[in-house]
Amino acid sequence: MSGLALRRPVEYDKHALMENGAGMDLQKQIHYWRNGSEEDMEVAVELLEKRRIRHALFYAHLALEKMLKAHVIGKTTDVPPRIHNLARLPELSGLSLPPDRRVFLERFDVYQMEGRYPAAKGSGKRTTAAFCSPSPAGRAWLSPREVGAGG
Fold first, then answer.
1. Calpha distance 138→133 (Å, rounded)
2. Measured between alpha carbons, how far is 10 from 20 in angstroms, rounded to an integer?
3. Smallest Cα–Cα separation from 39: which of 4, 74, 84, 89?
4. SS3 breakdown of the chain: % helix, strand, coil, rounded to 5?
């Protein structure tokens, strides 16, 4: 398994994860998505340390997506939609992001496609290299604790 630490799957109550909001335990839903986000970000960091860049960026995208879905649940009190679009999720959650963060999410969205379909348009070393060495401020913003704050 190439040295990655095996983790226990995120635990959840399947009855709390209903398809519609009826009877849904909001706090369990939010906890489920935030814990999944934190776990995926840890994996992204491990993959980045191993220079598995495309895979690291895919997991970082997944972590952001899950954290944003936790915000969607908090705002809508409903199960988040089955979408991967990082630019759309903040809109659904009512988060007000500064323009630079909206642009970042729009540009980072390519990594969910690149992770699933490596030959997808826009994938490649130049695109991936753009996010390989984020600034300290960028790394702080990508932290699940920062993204999940206040939601």
1. 9
2. 21
3. 4
4. 60, 0, 40
pLDDT tens for 68-120 read 999 999 999 888 889 999 999 999 999 999 999 999 999 988 888 777 777 76
CA-to-CA distance for 117 and 109, rounded, in angstroms?
Answer: 13
Identity of the amino acid at 106: E
Whole-angstrom Cα distance, residue 25 to residue 76?
Answer: 13
Domain boundaries of the chain, sorted by first residue: 14-148
Tokens of 9: 């799957």
pTM of the model: 0.69
What is the architecture, at CATH level 2, of domain 14-148? Up-down Bundle (1.20)
